[in-house]
Amino acid sequence: MFDTMTLTKVLGGLCGTLLVFLLGGWTAETIYHSGGHGEGEQAYVIEVEGEDTGGEPVEEGPAFEEVFAQADVAAGETLWRNCRSCHALEPGVNGTGPTLYGVVGRDVASISDFSYSGALVEAADVWTPEHLNGFLEDPKGYAPGTAMGYNGMRKVEDRADLIAYLDSIDD
């Protein structure tokens, strides 16, 4: 039953399997630990609240006033699509949110037939472009307790374009 040919085949199979495992381990080590163990920079860092990172301060982008001066009204019109599910641009027409016709320069919570949350009145008096920028960036952070369920626009250029469009639709 065990002749030399069978033993040679079994031994060759074991050696081949060992070779595949060794080459697989070497390849995996090369792929995942190419810079050596602990010498490379981490690809993804998880921020922990309360941890002192000791790093450099986060560099902020350009000031809103500079970006707003160069805002593109046509781009703001395309961004308006996100807002129109809850707001209207016609005067006196409210949806889930109040009408945004003439919102730039208007007193906060001034639409008489719309029930606002009290948080907006505490956040600002007049919807200036700067106040709208802060609100559109993070509505819940700017006016804690607001009923607006929007998460906000991250890009300052998008916010400036949208505010410029809203400013252009009224007289």
> How many angstroms does the end-to-end distance come to?
100 Å
Round the Cα radius of gyration to an integer and report it.
30 Å
At the first level of CATH, the class of one domain is Mainly Alpha
Query: Might you state the CATH topology name of one domain?
Result: Cytochrome Bc1 Complex, Chain D, domain 2
CATH architectural label of one domain = Orthogonal Bundle
What is the CATH superfamily classification of one domain? Cytochrome c-like domain
- What is the percent of helical residues? 40-55%
SSE ordering: HHHHHHH
Question: Which regions contain 5 or more consecutive residues with pLDDT less than 50?
Answer: none
The main sheet comes to: none
Counting helices, strands and paired strands, the structural category is: mainly alpha
Assembly of the depicted chains: single chain
InterPro entries: Cyt_c-like_dom, Cyt_c-like_dom_sf, Cyt_c_1A/1B
Keywords: Electron transport, Heme, Iron, Metal-binding, Transport
GO molecular function: electron transfer activity; heme binding; metal ion binding
Pfam families: Cytochrom_C
